[in-house]
Amino acid sequence: MSPTRRPDAARFACVGVGVGPANLSLASLLHGRQDFPNLFLEQREKFGWHDGQLLHDASLQVSMLKDLVTLADPTNPFSFLSYLHSRGRMYHFINAQFEAVPRKEYRNYLEWACGRNENLAFGESVLSIGFDGDFIVETTRRLVIAANVVVGVGMRPWVPLHVAGSLGPSQFHAAEYLRHLDRLPGARVVVVGGGQSGAEIVLDLINRRDADLPRQVSWLSRRPNYFPIDDSPFTNDYFTPPFSDFFARLDEVTRKDFNGRHVLASDGASESTLRQIYQRLYRGRFIDRDQVDVALLPGREVSEVARTDSGWRLSMMNRYLGAPEQVEGDVVIWATGFRRPELTFLAPIADRLERVGDEFRVDRDFAVAWDGPTDRSLFLQNATRQQRGLADPNLSLLAWRSKRIADRMLGRPGDEPVESFVDWSGETGGQGADR
């Protein structure tokens, strides 16, 4: 049922749904504009970002310059450098010579940005969004009017359907890892998933102190091996604005094929993490001769999980041999990634929004194509991987995408980055722009 306008409802030029990194980036770029009132709503009571899996040594897989604002506005006071400066730790950070930003530090930076922005409202869920010439946004606390809405609700932990009904303290998603550490000492632990989350958890498990070590760690992956993320310069061109625009112009079949073939550009494990795991295995087997038993099992696809008297039994197919296998554990950790949630609050206007595949169709400014007026737009953040490529759910294009959305809402021309060195489209005649 569509919400009904109320005469006392507050009016905003922009209402954001969700306060993760994507919408926090946009909120930071819009902050301080008295001529453009904006409000960003978050159902959680306080800010959080992967809090259940922020392991001690985990680092970002992107440059520190790919923060909320820098690549769109280097002078913006919500930059990562501004955060370091405000905390009096600029020289300390430089002297620490981190190869990459510690993930806990980045999480604290995001929380700092939230604390400086009065246009964010936590503990307020959006129930429905209707339209009567303006967007009518109904929340658990109030009803507000918006000229534009920006949806940036992020991703949710995903596990296979045959597992979802049996999650609990001894079988859980990697996003809950730190909340179940008491289950690990002396246990047989099975980790499913060969990406960065799985690698970080395996490294943490085998690096624990003697009393906290599990008895056995089994690491399963559907992939043929434990592959590193491709962080080379030309692959990183996939995470630039010019390539995002080029990718959007490709046909649907080509885009799907590209994302499948190049998944390791965004979804592999850091080479440094894999190296640490291998070195720890070397020390454990040949030097320290410790008691943790590690089984590395790539090329395995889990088909069934059954409870046993002592824990869990996973049935799987060895994809190399085409033969069934089983592994047992006391604890099962699913490092199987995240998926977009259903945007049920859009139900009142869903039949007016165009779709492509299982996504809403967006234009170059990430506005959903629909039958409404051109001066009223619903934008999507982090929800168009099929249309915009591997970079869409990544941190790399946060600031650029937010600026595109802001420029559209503000009716101002955008300044685009210099063309890529790579002539993806054939339109430049092989001559890179220089401006």
Give structural notes.
This protein is an alpha/beta fold and 435 residues long. It is 24% helix and 22% strand. The protein is built from 11 helices and 19 strands. The chain has helices spanning 21-30, 80-86, 90-96, 103-115, 161-164, 196-206, 241-248, 252-261, 271-287, 385-388, 398-410; strands at 10-17, 38-42, 120-122, 126-131, 135-139, 143-151, 156-157, 171-173, 188-192, 216-221, 293-298, 300-307, 312-318, 323-329, 331-334, 338-339, 355-356, 359-360, 377-380. Strands 1, 2, 3, 4, 5, 6 and 19 form a 7-stranded mixed beta sheet that branches. Strands 8-15-9-10-11 form a 5-stranded parallel beta sheet, with helices on one face. It has a 3-stranded antiparallel beta sheet with strand order 12-13-14, with no helix packed on it. The radius of gyration is 23 Å and the shape is globular. The protein starts with 9 loop residues before the first strand and ends in a 25-residue tail after the last helix. Mean pLDDT is 94; it is low at 430-435.
Sum this structure up briefly.
With 435 residues, the protein is α/β, with parallel strands linked by helices.
How many DSSP E strands? 19
Beta-strand content: 15-25%
Basic shape: globular
Helical content (DSSP H or I, runs of 4+):
10-25%
Helix count, per DSSP? Answer: 11
Mean pLDDT: 94
Catalogue the unreliable spans: 430-435
Distance between the termini: 51 Å
Largest sheet, strands/sense/barrel:
7 strands, mixed
Structural class of the helix and strand makeup? alpha/beta
Radius of gyration: 23 Å
Order of helices and strands: EHEHHHEEEEEHEEHEHHHEEEEEEEEEHH
